[in-house]
Every structure is written in structure tokens, then in C-alpha cells.
């Protein structure tokens, strides 16, 4: 993996902090290809978990290409790091929201492996289980045929709890990241991107993330329907 100046700079700043504040358990590295096209999908519980997942991928090593909300690209220094390291901006609730998927598709075809949060935001499920996803990951799969690799994480909410807004920077907060085998989407290979097909693929992906997360959490996965965020679909849901 090529690591340019700004990625090495981010490592220099963030790795010591993550080393101090987290006690890491990495699982499933064998399911992360070191090269070639792939689509990484992950559950989202906290604004801290992208850093934890990035640390996991960086240690593999695998290049990190996240679909990131465009607001972060306007933050001084943060925006420079994101642009220079090839992250993909998502202009949510705008006419250009679809550009992120087009960019991601081109990157996948070029042999990269962008990571997308199918939920499009931090989960609002009261118990932090994955909720109903948007169709971005399904669209990427139908456009490219690349394997969809689930990555689940647990513990980052101990650093930042989105529900309360509290930040708790305690040393050696336990965090686990686990990558699974590709989601079995063979039944949908070559299928047309109809609304029904996109929803079915998205549900398969989200239920897989929920089941894999249950293994990491060491408790049964919920058996009911996925939590639905009560808001108008936007951005990657379009």
C-alpha cells in the first residue's frame, strides 16, 4: 500500500493516540484482500469508529478509501488529509450526491476497495444494532460485481457515545474490529438495479452485519425487523 505524506502524517498523529486510548482486538484479516477490487461495508455506532476501522485496515495493510460526508472536507487540516489521501466526499441532500457512487465505482474498477457505511449515518437503534440501510452498497455491487466484505466493530462508542454526545477518553478502551467472508450475493449477480432488487441486496447486507456483530458482542442478534430511521431518504439512498 502506498502511503503518501499526508497519510503518514495522520498515522504519526493518530496512531499513538489510538494506541493509548484503545485496547484493540483485530479479527479476520485473512478476509481483507491486500489488493484488488472490493467493497467494504461496516456498521456505524460512533464518530470514533472510522478511526478504529482505519487503524484496522492500515495495520493489514490495505489502502483506506472511505465515503465521507463532504462537510469534513472543509475542516482545516482534516480536509487536506482527506483530499490528499484519496477519500471520497459525499454531498448529501444535494443534486451531486450521486457523484460519490460514481467515483467509488471508478475506484473499484481501478482495483481499489472503498468503504461505505450502508446506513449513511450513525445507527439510531437504541441498542446500537445496525439499522435499515440505504442502497449505495447494493448499487456498487451491481455496477462492479466486486465482493462485498463485511467489517463490524464494537467498542468505539466507549470513546464517543453518539446518543449522549459524551466523549470518554479512557486509556485502553476495548475495541474489536472483525472482517468476515464476502456476503453471498450470487443470486443477484447481473440483476437489474430495480428498487426491489436494491432493497433485497441491502437487507441481505445489513442482516449479515447484524449477525456478524452479534458474534463480536457475544449475544444473540435481534430477530425482528431492522430499525428504521424516521427521516426522508437522502444522499446515498436516492
UniProtKB/TrEMBL annotation:
Q: Where is the Phospholipid/glycerol acyltransferase domain?
A: 38-156
Give an example GO molecular function: acyltransferase activity
Q: Which UniProt keywords apply?
A: Acyltransferase, Transferase
CDD domains, per database record: LPLAT_AGPAT-like
InterPro entries in alphabetical order: Plipid/glycerol_acylTrfase
Q: Does the keyword Transferase apply?
A: yes
Keyword check for Acyltransferase, yes or no: yes
SUPFAM superfamilies of this UniProt entry? Glycerol-3-phosphate (1)-acyltransferase (SSF69593)
Write down the superkingdom of origin: Bacteria
**Name assigned to this protein:** Lysophospholipid acyltransferase family protein
User: Species name for this entry?
Assistant: Cryptosporangium japonicum
